[in-house]
Write a structure and sequence with these properties.
CATH topology: Rossmann fold
Largest sheet: 7 strands, mixed
CATH class: Alpha Beta
Number of domains: 1
Number of strands: 9
Structural class: alpha/beta
Amino acid sequence: MPNVLRRILLIRHGPSAHSESPGWIDAAGVDRWREAYDAAGILPQSAPPPSIAAAVAGADVLVTSDLPRALASAERLAPGKSVRVSPLFREMSLEVPRWVGARWPLSIWALCIHAHWLIRERRGEIAHADELQRAADAVAVLDDISREVPTVAVVTHGAFRRILTLRLAATGWTPERRIGGYRNWSVWPFCRVDVDSGEGTGVVR
């Protein structure tokens, strides 16, 4: 029986249009900055690399987070292409260290937040249970779609993409060579090969 190749492309959105520095802020200021960041689209002049745009153009289905920067990125990647929008692919909120009483520039806050996240990751606590469940639900959706079409492109976010990759790997998907590292517009492809059962879209793992 012939093999069936399925692929999922995890794409990080383009650079946010919310780039104004908030100055020296406390933890509550970080929360306000995040709210503004989530409400913003992407920079008007930013365009995805041609190779990535071509990969998305060749995808059968385009899925995106419902946050504005993801929606704008999907339109920039494939103008006029129909998309499936879901909050399942939203960014997860990395914990802000509330015990810090100082006021810092956003860059220092970002270092602290990511350092705290990396420490938790080394302890096997990369995300809370609800975020892990959301990633499991998101991967289940992608797996279902990929049974109907060969290639699914997903516009999502930096931290949540890390969780998606862990779930994909745990459920039998194989990572391919990453394009663009962790940067905006980067792509992390996954694939799996199933044996065609000969009964429509059914596959045997």
